[in-house]
């Protein structure tokens, strides 16, 4: 946590990533270059909605500096420890939001996700993390001010709690009633065999119908999303380089990002259109798509502190920032002391459908009457 505060009422506690404005507090984005930032003049819209819904904001959460890294390491503001897997990185960039939830400090962590920055730390820390459909939740008051990839979203240890929060801050988030069991489309991607074995076991236990899906443009979509995040983050943060206070890893990435060309950006936008169409077509044949959240297990914190980077850890999350589809990371049980998560991808705008499919996958589906009672209980427990 970067700062403690107490806003709103109710027992449900929320931490807010420090790229999101809270009135009266500076938004430092985990960077010494913004240490002297003035207090925010107004709440970000997601903060306004959270407080209006009766939640209790208890602090601002640390992150990978400037939300531009996947390990969650932060030499200036401090690195949140991974509560469930202490030897491993917490994941970035929403490391503090994931760690606070996993440690029980908060019921909800609000993060942002430009290339997996909610889902990767959720997977590393063994919690749920939702990247909503692009544009579903307002980014007013969120750094950077302009992004064609970034989404605000929640993390939680309990999927019902996460869903109740989404319903509380977004009236359009409503579970479909009595919907048929979804057909899962398993995307053929490369991931460690132990990760796929755990996912296959969960799919088999669920008894859900499934088919195989090929997304040939996945690798190109990852590279295209890298081009776009580099261009957009450089434009948002280039003035901070002159302070000399940006951490070495982020400074290196920003300087490299300056080399992105207009031609590369044009090609990335072409890939965005083609990959979005490819995902949409797969979702015409399947209700949700299934793949691992991470292609391999997270690196150790020791390796990250030694300067190692791992942008490829976002190879299975970042493409869906490019396409804008809703994506939910779900923690699974694993026989070894390592985190495994599965990711569900849904149709554009069908965030609630993705969450319901997750309930069915995890064997948590209730009857319609029980669902209404549970939703009401969570909605009034703030």
TrEMBL record:
It holds the Pfam family Amidase. Residues 14-170, 243-354 form the Amidase domain. Coiled coil: none annotated. Belongs to the amidase family. This is Amidase. It comes from Vreelandella neptunia.
């Amino acid at each position: 946590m970067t700062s403690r505060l107490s806003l709103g009422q109710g027992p449900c506690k929320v931490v807010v990533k420090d790229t999101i404005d809270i009135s009266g507090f500076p938004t430092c984005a985990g960077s010494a270059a913004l240490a002297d930032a003035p207090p925010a003049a107004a709440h970000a819209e997601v903060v306004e909605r959270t407080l209006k819904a009766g939640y209790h904001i208890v602090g601002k959460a640390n992150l990978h500096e400037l939300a531009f890294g996947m390990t969650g390491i932060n030499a200036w503001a401090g690195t949140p420890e991974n509560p469930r897997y202490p030897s491993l990185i917490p994941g970035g960039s929403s490391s503090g939001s994931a760690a606070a939830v996993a440690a029980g400090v908060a019921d909800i962590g609000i993060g942002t996700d430009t290339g997996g920055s909610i889902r990767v730390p959720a997977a590393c820390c063994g919690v749920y993390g939702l990247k909503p459909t692009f544009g579903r939740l307002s980014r007013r008051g969120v750094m950077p001010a302009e992004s064609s990839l970034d989404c605000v979203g929640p993390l939680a240890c309990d999927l019902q709690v996460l869903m109740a929060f989404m319903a509380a801050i977004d009236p359009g988030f409503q579970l479909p009633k009595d919907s048929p069991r979804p057909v899962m489309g398993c995307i053929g991607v490369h991931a460690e065999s132990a990760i796929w074995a755990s996912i296959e076991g969960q799919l088999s236990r669920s008894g859900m119908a499934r088919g195989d899906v090929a997304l040939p443009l996945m690798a190109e979509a990852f590279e295209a999303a890298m081009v776009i995040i580099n261009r957009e983050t450089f434009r948002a943060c280039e003035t901070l380089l002159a302070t000399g206070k940006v951490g070495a890893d982020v400074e290196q990435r920003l300087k490299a990002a300056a080399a992105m060309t207009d031609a590369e950006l044009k090609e990335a936008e072409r890939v965005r259109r083609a990959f979005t169409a490819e995902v949409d077509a797969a979702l015409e044949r399947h209700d949700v798509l299934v793949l691992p959240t991470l292609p391999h297990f997270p690196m150790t914190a020791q390796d990250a502190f030694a300067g190692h980077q791992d942008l490829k850890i976002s190879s299975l999350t970042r493409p869906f920032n490019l396409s804008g589809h809703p994506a939910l990371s779900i923690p699974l049980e694993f026989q070894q002391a390592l985190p495994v998560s599965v990711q569900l991808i849904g149709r554009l705008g069908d965030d609630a459908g993705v969450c319901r499919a997750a309930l069915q996958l995890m064997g948590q589906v209730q009857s319609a009457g029980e669902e209404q009672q549970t939703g009401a209980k969570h909605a009034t427990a703030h």
